[in-house]
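Example 3.2
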Amino acid sequence: MPQSPAPKNSLRTSLPGGVWGVVATPFQGSTLDVDLDSLAELVEHYQAIGATGLTVLGVFGEAAALTPEERRDVLETVVESTTLPLVVGVTALATRPAIEEVLAAQDAAGHRLAAVMVQANAARPETVIAHLDAIHRATGAQVVLQDYPLASGVSISTAALATVVNACSYVIAVKAEAPPTSVAIAELSAAVEVSIFGGLGGQGLLDELVSGAAGAMTGFSYPEALIACVRAWQADGYEAAQHELLPYLPLINFEQQARVALAIRKECFRERGLIKDSGVRAPAAGFPEVLRPSMHVHLEEAAAALGSRTTVGSI
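Structure, written as tokens:
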């Protein structure tokens, strides 16, 4: 299918660029109950370090493992603990359950809800458009369109994504997580007039920025590094951004290990004192203890880099 042209001189809203922190859902104890106190401390940290906004109940937030009541508790805690705008993830690929999730998010988050993040649920653009249209008609919500085949099981071409965005004026951003992300972001940036964000733990952030990304919408145990990188890119370009991110790249790579990435990142958060417990719910795999020595090396390097940047910035 040919790539549809971007609309010109449009008044379409676009999600603000920067770093939207993807929030983990902390659990506690052997029962893995939601730890709302840790959640509050975590999102307060994101606000303190300058995140643009928060993405809640995404894949990293283990939303699919939460009950509807727990999802409401998580959203209400985030709303009470920060003043940041929110993007709320929708786990359902079918239209009617997705609408129910969006209505629940609107009820819990109110005016703080900047958009809901809906996954592309089919390869054919007309199917995705019908899905999004039904959601928007029922809820009026603005949409971040997420292309994350690892989570959704759906592969859609970049040209088809552009067709969807240009057909749906309420889509205000795309989260592009189908590798190679820098290629997809470059093609989308040329075809649509909304913000494009990378994810995947920041692994491709530098190349994504060069390709036209507005920032990152992802989780990482040192989100300070992502924020510094994007700000440096916006102010001074590639070399400045590279300088900010380079010391953290070993930890970024370490966290993104297949099947255990979630557990690793939550354990890193726990080691940093940002959450009390690093438990994950099935089907996620737990933290492999054999990786603890490597994790400590990477965390020490990241802490030293952050300390150095903080010291220089305070002079």
